[in-house]
Design a protein that fits this description.
binds zinc ion; 9 helices; 10 strands; alpha/beta; eight-stranded parallel sheet; two-stranded antiparallel sheet
């Protein structure tokens, strides 16, 4: 393993906020509040006592406007109902708590970027919801309101002057919104492994942006061996070529074999493996600077176990 120079004195940050539990898309919706509760319960375990814990601040509308149309944040907030639910599309549903949850998700990722760049943490995981990677500059989509990971990339560039920021997405669904932001900007890099075809329908191998987008579509039934090969042969070499100053990770755990929304066959150990490979890449190019954000994952037990494997790896325990 190449992480032998891992600096145990540099801690891992966990950023979350209880407001992210108050987003309730409705009874029977898979993106349920219990997802985050399950993840946060795991981090009460003794092995995670070494995490630095930070309450997510509210995300700034100026940061959201780095990715989304200027009027978008206000429009989403105006659509948040006082009672009951409001639908932005067939599966993107707002409840009274959704606005604060989405703003905390953005604030979590930008705060984690600030901390990692300042050097107060080596890396960080943002345990937040709603997820973000389907959100397009012009519209919410697929459970996602604001594209937190793309906002974090832009924040790293505008607030900290970074020139090259990479986003790697191993959620089982393609991060279409993130790709939209990256594909015309050579200062950004986006790589995604995902089941294909599957929602949202994008992410074919031929979608390469300016050469800064790598899509690794995986057939239904693909297991950890195939997933690892896609990273070893395609994603990791391209990431090294790009030489990012910061690695951002869209960490969805719905490629787990137990997940009800998709058909890949990954296990907890595969998430630990990919996390360690991404940390090694970050170590080669950015002093280890890496910030990860929770995207999907809909089997509560698999989600909690996979998030635990991911964060254990970030802490250097894998
Ligand atoms: Zn997903």
């Amino acid at each position: 393993m190449e992480c032998t120079d891992y600096d145990a004195a540099m801690p891992t940050l966990l950023v979350t906020h209880r407001d992210c539990i108050a987003h309730e898309p409705g009874h029977g919706h898979p993106e349920a509040p219990g997802r985050l509760s399950a993840v946060l319960d795991i981090f009460k375990e003794r092995e995670f006592a070494g995490l630095i814990r930070l309450e997510a601040p509210m995300g700034r509308e100026t940061d959201i406007a780095l990715v989304h149309e200027p009027s978008f944040a206000g429009a989403v907030m105006a659509a948040v109902p006082v009672t009951g639910h409001a639908a932005l599309d067939a599966d993107t549903i707002l409840s009274p708590g959704s606005g604060a949850a989405a703003l905390r998700a953005v604030g979590a990722v930008t705060a984690a970027v600030d901390a990692v760049i300042a050097g107060t943490a080596r890396n960080g995981f943002c345990a937040v919801r709603p997820p973000g990677h389907h959100a397009e500059p012009t519209h919410a989509m697929g459970f996602c309101l604001f594209n937190s990971i793309a906002i974090a990339a832009r924040h790293a560039q505008t607030a900290h002057g970074l020139k090259r920021v990479a986003i790697v997405d191993f959620d089982v669904h393609h991060g279409n919104g993130t790709q939209t932001v990256v594909e015309s900007d050579p200062s950004l890099f986006f790589a995604s492994s995902h089941q294909y075809p599957l929602y949202p329908g994008t992410g074919a191998a031929g979608e390469t942006g300016l050469g800064n987008v790598v899509n690794a579509p995986l057939a239904a039934g693909s297991d950890g061996k195939i997933f690892r090969r896609a990273f070893e042969t395609r994603i990791l070499p391209a990431l090294d070529e790009f030489a990012p100053e910061l690695v951002l990770v869209s960490a969805g755990f719905d490629a787990h074999r137990a997940d009800p929304l998709a058909g890949l066959e990954l296990e907890e150990a595969d998430f630990a493996w990919v996390t360690t490979r991404l940390m090694e890449a970050a170590q080669r190019h950015s002093g280890g600077k890496l910030v990860s954000v929770l995207e999907g994952g809909y089997d509560l037990r698999a989600l909690a176990g996979s998030a635990a494997a991911h964060v254990s790896a970030l802490m250097g325990k894998a």
